[in-house]
Amino acid sequence: MRRITRITTVGIASAALALTATACGGKTSSDAGSDGQAKAAIAYDIGGRGDQSFNDAAYAGLKKAEDELNIKGAEAEPSEGEGDADKVQRLTELARSGNNPVIGVGFAYAPAIEKVAKKYPKTTFGLIDDTSKTGPNIANLVFNEEQGSYLAGVAAAKASKTGTVGFIGGVEVPLIKKFEAGFVQGVTDTNPKAKVLKQYLTQPPNFDGFAKPDLGKAAAQGMLDKNADVIYAAAGLAGSGAIEATATAGKWAIGVDSDQYNQKGLAKYKAKILTSVTKDVSDSVFNLIESVKKGKPQSGEVRYGLDKDGVGLANSNPEYQKMTDLIAAVEKAKADIIAGKIKVKTAP
């Protein structure tokens, strides 16, 4: 297996000097490095690799492609306070160096991918969590987050002893409001008397709510002080702070995106991570890379829902596995959503 190449924003300009420029038409799916190996790249969202959540799930897909498809992977990290121009430069260099596909992890890459994809029509671009920008060589990898969050709401309502639970959103944007909507609906459908505390860490254009654990920690502490005993955070790296505060208080935390019970960086708190709402970001990345390698690249909307385990609820914690009433309620809710008996809201 080849080592994944990491490209930081600071180093991207100097890296460009070492790259062989290609025509604006980009490279075809069969193009590869000088050693004949196919290449693929991901550009990380706020928080970068190591967030124990969204970005790490995308990395897992790239790693799987390296292991199983003989892909040479490249990674590009974001920089604090960057704008669309920085993302355009990053994606351009990744495409120019022959990576195909080039995947932007998160909706913040939408404007940049729209621009760069037009310059490299033979390169496939993956855009995770956004359908606002489309094109013949853009694959919009999206998820029914509200469905997984509904199941988390059912679990939270069943696990709570105080009748008060909390939802922490990283940044108040439509995507995260899907998480809120599903969670609140799941809680109230399960226990109409339950109280749901809600807080967003930042408002756009400030995206620190996805990047700073201290913000999540403070928000969770505030909810704990108000008697919440189950807290669900959809906040990227900031969510790790919420997990820390909640677990330290001996209450239940619910993770997001990855199965956070199994994340090494959160091992200290895993006993109190009840479950996690999972998004199969890993397989979405792998599947896109595989489609390009096979010469049949995905394009348009590629949706991952509960019906195909594209979203779900993790059951890694042994304590969760003992909660038979909770599990039964979650399984019934899952079946009813798939059958169309429960319509989950996508906005609060």
TrEMBL record:
Signal peptide from the UniProt entry: 1-23
PANTHER family noted in UniProt: ABC TRANSPORTER GUANOSINE-BINDING PROTEIN NUPN, TRANSCRIPTIONAL ACTIVATOR PROTEIN MED
Record membrane topology: Lipid-anchor
Similarity comment text for this entry: Belongs to the BMP lipoprotein family.
Lineage: Bacteria, Bacillati, Actinomycetota, Actinomycetes, Kitasatosporales
InterPro entries: BMP_lipoprotein, Peripla_BP_I, PnrA-like
Superkingdom assignment: Bacteria
Descriptive protein name: BMP family ABC transporter substrate-binding protein
Coiled-coil regions listed in the entry: none
CDD domains, per the entry: PBP1_PrnA-like
Protein's cellular compartments: Cell membrane
Provenance organism: Streptomyces purpureus
Record-annotated ABC transporter substrate-binding protein PnrA-like domain positions: 45-335
Main location: membrane
Record GO cellular component, one term: plasma membrane
Keyword terms: Cell membrane, Lipoprotein, Membrane, Signal
